């Protein structure tokens, strides 16, 4: 019975979030290039488009 109540609450919550989507804004992006790009080239591309290159992510296979 307890599990059914939890499941019902979960279903109602998901249903409400689908019916009333909220916009999400962020000021940071993770960009993946289709080809190998060195750090200087990545910095120039970011600067050209108004972004700041923070370097590769910690778990990146390209670091």
Compact overview of the structure:
With about 60 residues, the protein is mostly helical. It is built from two helices and no strands.
What does this entry look like structurally?
Keywords: Signal. This is Amontillado-like protein. It comes from Euroglyphus maynei (Mayne's house dust mite). About 45% of the residues lie in helices and about 0% in strands. With about 60 residues, the protein is mainly α. It has one domain. The N and C termini lie far apart (about 50 Å). The mean pLDDT is about 75.
List SSEs in N-to-C order: HH
The average pLDDT is 75
Question: What is the number of domains?
Answer: 1
Secondary structure class reads: mainly alpha
The span between the termini is 51 Å
Largest sheet: none
Classify the oligomer. single chain
Number of strands: 0
Strand fraction equals under 5%
Using only C-alpha atoms, the radius of gyration works out to 20 Å
Give the helix tally.
Answer: 2
* Basic shape: elongated
**Roughly how much helix do the residues carry, as a percent range?**
40-55%
Low-confidence spans: pLDDT under 50, at least 5 residues?
Answer: none
Keywords: Signal
InterPro entries: S8_pro-domain_sf
Protein name: Amontillado-like protein
Signal peptide: 1-16
